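quick one: 6-phosphogluconic acid bound model?
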Amino acid sequence: MKSKIIIVMGVSGSGKTTLGSMLAEKLNTDFFDGDDFHPKENIAKMSNGIPLTDDDRIGWLDRINEKGVELIQNNKSGVFACSALKESYRKRLSNTLEKEILFVYPKGSQEVIQRRMDARKDHFMPSNLLDSQFSILEEPKNAIEIDLTKTPEQMLEDTIKKMALSEFGLVGLGVMGKSLARNLANNGTKLSLFNRYVKGSEEGIANKFINSFEELSDAQGFEDLEDFVESMQTPRKIFLMIKAGKETDEFIEKIKPFLNAEDVLIDGGNSHFKDTKRRIEYLEKEGIYFVGTGVSGGEEGALKGPSIMPSGNFDAYKTIEPFLKKIAAKDKKGLDCCTYIGPEGSGHFIKMVHNGIEYAEMQLIAEVYALLRYSNQMSPDEISEVFKEWNQGELKSYLLEISSEILTKKEGDNCLLDMILDQAGNKGTGNWTTVTATEMGMPATMITSALFARYVSSVREKYGNLSLITEQSFIKLEIETVKNAYSLARIINHQQGFTLIKIASEEYRWNLNLSEISRIWTNGCIIRSTLMEEISAVFKHNSDIFDDLSIFENVNKFRSALKTFCVSSLMAELPIPTMLAANDFVNSLNGEIKTANIIQAQRDFFGAHTYQRTDAERGKFFHTNW
Ligand code: 6PG
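yep, here:
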């Protein structure tokens, strides 16, 4: 066993000292009575019958914590009996011991404990003491629960059995599943891992994986679903890292018979938010929780700290929160890039829009690259330098950083990029964002154009033999102009993406917190950037990033650069759908230029669809006999 600090917690009379000392003996480690760690002032207060305040307890908890840290530093375990009645106390005890600490909770009702104490001749427990303890008791979500009506020997046996069980399960050892499993194990979570058995292609995957990484030495591998489920503490917490869609439904059907009420399935794949809602409702009938969870950051993020977006039943979220928070990326203030998003499939909804924004961010970089490479005639290395420099300042983003690296990658004397087939793939989330935006009547024009740019790249090959007449004229642009155009296009992309989230939140009554969402996207995820940090601050006071004057100022400041960028690219015959979408969106903000009125007139002309007038009140409709 890895070194552990085990805290047997609970109210007075729950048997924590008896169980703790028996457990220490069984595990051959030292036992510590929490009461021995009170500072003098507390002892004085207690002996004068003065109740301790939360502030009084800080020093006491810190001293126990220090002892725990000392034991771990010396590669030792220890068992402590300590009431630890409140969540905040347990947090204090866990400080820097998050990976090693384990709570055991002998659980029973107030009546049972009172009766037990009354029956013990040597021990008198005033009922008001128990009253006050129960009034502040916040039951732990992640402790090993032991039934205190059993004999101490039975309680010990149950504790040992439950300690051997895993705290968390993970299904699906693909790239993301493996990285998340290692991240969980690195953060002290005892795991059960399941991978399906497919003769010839997927055999013994979980055990082979476990044997390859030191941090998984405590983990158990399975190919039998029932054994896998039985290997976990209840309520079970199981991360599903399997293919979205049909496979997820099929897997749910297979695992469901082995699950109990209150078990939690966490779907970490890129599932459609409507599927997530359906699955939540379906499993709810059996009392099983389903938490749809967006996970972003790719393979490396999953291993070192992804951005995590869980949604569904809030109580179910609370039971998995400590595990998710431990593995999440941290923002600049050290806060976890994991937060409860909202009900239903809202976590998968925002992950979907995240990916849509990602599509447009990637396409914008591609269009900037095209202009620099073809119009400005710069080499990949030179463009890489430009990206690197931008990445030092307010344009800093993960996608710009990796693009700068990509441009320098060589294969022999060749730039690897030039050897990559010019066809962009996709797995569907950009498509869903586009469909959703159109269904909701929202102009996510940049995401849509970026998606279609990928589709166009796939049909291009078909027309490769057509003799296209070209009349390209290359106008070298100032790097500053390109930079400003790119800056503005990114602002528009984020404005459109977040507005989509805002409107969905209103339509579905999710009550989403845009500031928190953008905050958990400042690190760990693919679209992390300095702009995201600014946006998160803006959403603390506004619900639209255009409401922030300093951001909107940039629309005016960089508009002419964006226009110049588009004109130059068009002159060079470069495909720039996403920059054009940004430019069009800005142009459309100008209320002086009217084009929708003629659409309304046409509709009224041929179909008597009516129109509203500028000189009449809104909501009044007119028809003309044209
Ligand atoms: C992330 C990524 C991740 C994945 C997408 C890419 O946030 O970590 O978005 O979810 O890379 O599957 O989607 P496409 O294959 O559609 O580009």
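The mean pLDDT is 94.
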